[in-house]
Write a structure and sequence with these properties.
Elements: H1 2-18, H2 42-59, H3 66-78, E1 84-88, H4 103-111, E2 119-123, H5 129-140, E3 148-152, H6 158-166, E4 176-178, H7 185-195, E5 204-206, H8 216-226, E6 231-233, H9 240-292, H10 298-304, H11 306-316, E7 335-337, H12 353-367, E8 373-375, H13 383-398, E9 405-407, H14 414-423
Length: about 450
């Protein structure tokens, strides 16, 4: 896999050199290429990092990651710095083969003070507690502005998650965390929730196929309601209806309250406009009657054309763009992916559980302006619950709110499924390096 990925990267670099410059859209164009980051003295910075990494690998009897080595050499050719690092364990097939280790890379980044790293992706690497602690120390050094950390299929234990999450408080640049395919269960989710206390920077958390049960719902609910997290990707777990309700309960109540406030504000505004229109009609009638009697003053005559002048002045003014502030902390959700989570009525005594869940979800869909995506694929919610979702989507359309991209099971009546596809189209699945089947 690594050889093929390297071959693709090398081909793209040679093609970039041969292709002539083309005219057309530059900045802001849909087909424009993303610019690579250029830094003064980039060659010297990359050269030092590459030498330090190879030296650390020699000291630890490991081999450098082929992907990282090729990416660094490509940066030397282009005069750019590398901001995305991907490390993946290698298969030791015969005696004498050296493994790819994580420690030499993290040590080289710290030794050379490489402050240009933004994304760190660790794939299919068996991380020990020592590895997690070293990664946590890198995050706690505030000179490394990491935005994304992904540990996919790394066999992380609950205790390791606790050490990893403890570093979030010190890293004020981290916005995305992905821990997919680490089966640390409810205990690991609880440890992550503790580490997220007081965090105001992380916006997205992904824990797909992490063996989370209904108990994890309350921990995830705390994360969503007390931090700035607004995107949750939780496919392939066992949250069931109980856990799913715990996640969205406070968000649904907040959305319901905001909808009430919005309706009340619209009612007061309509009353105010009606009163203002009535006062304007009375004023015009008074001026008109005075003019017909020849008793109007100069100021009253000027009032007749005053409204038109005000309208012209308003049209001439341009609205200033609002500066984006820090993300809000509170019970708001933007994306919620709960595919294949046992949200159904199969369990004994839970015949009405999907209806209870969907009615809470309905409040969220109908009232939240920020809600954009919902994935309920591979959950047998039933046709009655699906109709409730259709009503919520129709309400958003009538109120001219933003649409919600939605995926759900196809095991519904034809007309219900058709309406859901019509009102909630557009959701695309997040691409993964690989896919595992959930254990039954």
């Amino acid at each position: 896999m690594l050889k093929s990925r390297n071959r693709v990267a090398d081909n793209s670099q040679t093609n970039r050199k041969k292709m002539p410059k083309k005219g057309g859209k530059k900045k802001g164009g849909k087909k424009g290429k993303k610019k690579t980051k250029t830094v003064a003295g980039a060659d010297a910075i990359i050269q030092k990092l590459l030498k330090g990494y190879e030296r650390n690998c020699a000291l630890t009897e490991s081999q450098p990651s082929p992907w990282i080595r090729n990416a660094l050499k490509g940066c030397l050719e282009n005069g750019t710095v590398l901001d995305k690092f991907i490390i993946e364990s290698s298969v030791v097939e015969k005696e004498g083969d050296m493994p790819v280790l994580l420690e030499p890379l993290l040590a080289a980044i710290r030794q050379e003070r490489y402050i240009h790293i933004r994304d760190l992706r660790i794939w299919n690497y068996p991380m020990s507690h020592e590895n997690t602690a070293t990664l946590g120390l890198l995050l706690e050094k505030q000179c490394y502005p990491l935005r994304l950390v992904e540990c996919m299929d790394c066999l992380m234990e609950p205790y390791s998650v606790m050490r990893f999450a403890r570093s979030f408080r010190a890293c004020d640049t981290l916005t995305t965390i992905s821990l997919d395919y680490n089966e640390f269960g409810d205990e690991g989710c609880r440890n992550l929730s503790k580490g997220m206390e007081g965090n105001v920077t992380v916006l997205s958390i992904s824990m797909c196929f992490c063996d989370l049960g209904p108990e994890s719902g309350k921990y995830l609910g705390n994360i969503v309601s007390r931090t700035a997290v607004r995107d949750l990707f939780l496919d392939g777990n066992n949250l069931e209806c109980e856990g799913a309700i715990d996640i969205i309960k406070l968000c649904a109540e907040q959305a319901n309250f905001e909808a009430f406030q919005k309706a009340e504000k619209a009612r007061l505004k309509a009353e105010e406009e009606a009163l203002k229109a009535e006062q304007e009609r009375e004023g015009r009638h008074r001026v008109h009657s005075a003019l017909s009697g020849g008793m109007a003053s100069g100021s009253e005559k000027e009032d007749l054309g005053g409204d038109e002048k005000k309208k012209k002045k308003k049209k001439g003014k341009k609205k200033k763009k609002k500066e984006e502030g820090p993300p809000p902390v509170g019970p708001w959700l933007r994306k919620l992916h709960l595919a294949d989570n046992g949200i159904d009525n199969v369990a004994f005594g839970k015949e009405f559980a999907p209806i209870i869940f969907v009615r809470v979800l309905k409040k969220l869909i109908m009232g939240s302006e920020s809600f954009e995506e919902l994935d309920l694929e591979d959950n047998l919610i039933g046709d009655l619950s699906a109709r409730e979702i259709v009503e919520a989507l129709e309400h958003r359309k009538e109120e001219k709110m933003g649409g919600v991209k939605l995926k759900t099971t196809h095991k519904l009546q034809a007309d219900t499924f058709k309406n859901i596809c019509k009102l909630g189209a557009g959701l695309k699945k997040k691409k993964k390096k690989g896919k595992k089947k959930k254990k039954k």
